[in-house]
Structures are given as structure tokens and as C-alpha cells.
Amino acid sequence: MSTTFPAQVQLTDAELKLLQTLVYQECGMHFDERRTHFLRDRLQRRLKACQIDSFYAYYRLLTSREGKKELTALLENLTVNETSFFRIRPQLELFQKVILEEILKRKQERRDWSLRIWSAGCSTGQEPYTLAILVCDALAYYYLRNPLPFDMPTPKPLIPPPWKLEILASDISYSALLAAQQAIYTEPQMEPVDYTCRLRYFEKVGDKYTIKPMLKSLVQFDFHNLKAEFLPQNNDIIFCRNVMIYFDEAEQKRLIEKFYRCLNPGGCLFVGHAESLFGLTTKFHMIHENNATVYQRMEGAQ
Ligand SMILES: C[S@@+](CC[C@H](N)C(=O)[O-])C[C@H]1O[C@@H](n2cnc3c(N)ncnc32)[C@H](O)[C@@H]1O
């Protein structure tokens, strides 16, 4: 191995293909012609960081036992972690005012007090924390209209008993998960969060904000690669927004099939604005209201 490294190492078409295939097999991300420049750029950066002078040698490292850590680092560098609080508001309104209301009613009738939501591809946490806020507000409003037959303990819990809320938030990027767990957000990141919401659910730390512990404790973060066969089960709702957009059609179909199995009967799947289940499955029923879409699991679907 030489000790001086050129600014750019030549990446042949064959090497690019090998690396593209490896990335696809490992995490489902597909880099078509429009995105190969991004892949090339990130590969050059990782090669430099590892001080390796050929892409074939880098490929050999990635596929070796010793290369597991570098493979994680590469995949991490290929993810796009763009996110925000209250992203795609019409969809969140549909979630809170229609879907959640219906699920709460249905569950209450059955005396099932558990609610499980999964934010798959949660990035730096804004999505699962937004969902926690929306559920807490929805439950507070629900009990304003249907008071509990007993006094609420003090201080008032965010989730009125006997309800139990679990929000699982997962990602393939360890650095995004770490940031999500730290939950420190800057003023520009807080821009979509209004004044009352900040007062209720956030605390100031210097010139930044963090999530209050009671809300934070509702969200559990974990590493999950959506390419894996075994994914979190028994969810009432799955949010997987702006993730499938990076997968090709075959991988999208496989993921939707897995989501079907990860949802409870009648459960719902929310995907991003630019994503759709159209032509990919017949196992979900589309609900479109007020400029927002959700897909509900159909029972007895083959
Ligand atoms: C653009 S962000 C979307 C964040 C959030 N869902 C939203 O819509 O605001 C996409 C996230 O998906 C994650 N991701 C990409 N491929 C993944 C995979 N195979 N398994 C799990 N997460 C993945 C990325 O790390 C990234 O944090």
C-alpha cells in the first residue's frame, strides 16, 4: 500500500457495479444514474478515510470479516437524513384526527389499552417525537370529551391510564440514532414547532431545545435495517416516510410485504409524499382525505 494518496482514485465501471450491488444487498438502497455521482463521491471519501488506494481492495475489505465496521460506516455515509418536526402536516392531521381516533375507539371497545407505533427510518428523531406529541394531545382531547371514571393521578401523566403507548423508532444510521436519543434541536430545526407545543413538550438548553423527559420516555430507539427479514411486530401504525424512495421497485415490494406482516389487523401504513403503494401490492386499502393518504391493511388478503 502506498503512503501518498491521490485526491481521486479511479473508479472503474466494474468496481462501481460491484460496490453498487453490495450496497443494494446490504441495505436495499439503489443508486440509479441520477444518484451515482453521490455514490461515487461518498466512496471516494471512504477510500481516503481508510487510506486504501484501489476500489477493488476497498470492496475486498467490505466483504471481509474485518470490514464489518467499515461497511457500517459506508452505509451510514450513504443515507440521507433530512427530516423535520411536523413534516407533511395534512398527513399528520389524517393520522391524529381520523386514524388514531378510530383506533382508540376500536381498542377501547375491546378493552385493549395498548397502542404501538413504529417510525421506521426515524433519522434524528423529529418524526417519532412529533408522533408522541400528536398521540398525547389526541388522548388529552379524547378524555376531555370522555372523562375517566376516576381521578387522574398528579402530576397528570401524558398517557392517561390504563393506556400504554409504545413508540419504536429505528434507523440504519447509528449517528442519526445517537442524535435522536440526545434530542438537542437548534432554533432553525424548531421552526415548525409552535409556541404552545414548545411550552408543553420542550425545555430550553442554552440557545437550543430538548424534549421533556416525560415525552422522551415514550420513544424507544433501536437499530433496524429494513432489508432484514425480521422486523418489529404487532404495530398498530407504521410510519415509513421518505425511505422507500431510495429503494428500487423489487425492494419496495419486499418491504411492503414485510410491513403487512408487522401490522396488527386493521393497522395503517403512512409513506412519504413522493411514495405510493400503487402497483406494488393489493394487500392494502388506500384512504385519501384532505390531500393526505394512508394505507390500511386489508384482512384476508393473499
Ligand atoms: C430522508 S430520512 C427520512 C426521515 C423521516 N422518516 C422523515 O420522513 O422525516 C431517511 C432515513 O431512512 C434511513 N434508512 C435508509 N435505508 C434504511 C434501511 N435499509 N434501514 C433502515 N433505515 C434506513 C436513513 O438512515 C435515514 O435516516
Question: What this model shows, in words?
Answer:
This protein is of the alpha/beta class and 302 residues long. It has 11 helices and 10 strands. Strand 7, helix 11 and strand 8 form a beta-alpha-beta unit. The chain is globular and about 75 Å long. S-adenosylmethionine (SAM) binds next to loops.
Shape: globular
Order of helices and strands: HHHHHEHEHEHHEEHEEHEEE
Total of DSSP H or I helical runs spanning 4+ residues: 11
Bound molecules: S-adenosylmethionine
Low-confidence stretches: none
Radius of gyration: 22 Å
Largest sheet: 7 strands, mixed
Helical/strand content category? alpha/beta
Range of helix content: 40-55%
What percent strand? Answer: 15-25%
Strand arrangement, major sheet: 6-2-1-7-8-10-9
What's this, in brief?
The protein has 302 residues and is an alpha/beta fold. The protein has helices spanning 13-27, 36-50, 55-62, 68-78, 89-109, 126-145, 174-182, 187-190, 195-201, 213-216, 249-262; strands at residues 114-120, 164-171, 184-185, 202-205, 208-211, 219-223, 235-240, 263-271, 284-289, 292-297. The protein is built from eleven helices and ten strands.
